Amino acid sequence: MIVLKYEKTGRACFISHIDLLKHTARTIRRAGIPVKFSNGFSPHALLFFSAPLALGVSSIAEYLAIDTDMQADEVLSRFNANCPEVLKASKVFTVLKNPNLQGRVTASDYVFPTAYKDIDLSSGFVVSYKKKGEVVEEEVADKILGVYNLDGKLCLRLATGNNNLRPDRLLPRLNEICGEDMTAPNIVKIAQYANVDGQLEEVDSLLSTETQNK
């Protein structure tokens, strides 16, 4: 099993997750990467993605697991030779089985294009957004797992998975606090984390460990 770490930047941030699945499958076919298929009445290619990214948000830390017998370096080379620059892979890992990142990832780091500001979450953090045409107000302080200064920029660690907090839903409140006019394409996901024995471990580190132990 091979895992690619790839980006979704530039115009690609406006591609829906469904369209990304189709585009990636075509890229892999063009690249001549042999993918194993499931058994059963309707077999499908064994490709496994990390959780969908909010539409319009960019990322340099997306993951794709491919069930193939091809060597890791060859997969990386062929994938990058056949995909657009905005979806290039930066790293490749070899693991024994599907790491199930969509189910295991519980947090992600996002950088916002504004100067770092210490945001007080002790009194709550209510955001307002539209969902199915209705305005929803939600208290999300418990889903903001950390506020960090990353090279002078504001970085937030947000809950991912079953308790997901989309970063774009924070924008109206953050723009008010920071005096900015940020939009979703300005946000960049830079890391994802899995819960390992009660502690958050960055996915790159997790995959490296599973590579060594395979």
Can you characterise this structure?
It is a single chain. The protein is α+β, with helices and mostly antiparallel strands and 214 residues long. Helices cover 22% and strands 35% of the residues. The strands form 2 sheets. Strands 1, 2, 3, 4, 5, 8, 9, 10 and 11 form a 9-stranded mixed sheet that branches. The mean pLDDT is 92.
Unreliable sequence segments: none
Q: End-to-end distance, in Å? A: 10 Å
Spell out the helices and strands N to C. EHEEHEHEEEEEHEEH
> How large is the count of helical segments?
5
Quick one: how many beta strands? Answer: 11
Keywords:
214 residues, alpha+beta, nine-stranded mixed sheet, two-stranded antiparallel sheet
Structure in a nutshell:
This protein is α+β, with helices and mostly antiparallel strands and 214 residues long. The chain is elongated and about 50 Å long.
Write the layout of secondary structure elements.
Elements: E1 2-8, H1 17-31, E2 47-49, E3 58-66, H2 72-81, E4 89-94, H3 101-104, E5 105-115, E6 126-131, E7 134-139, E8 144-150, E9 153-159, H4 171-178, E10 188-196, E11 199-202, H5 203-212
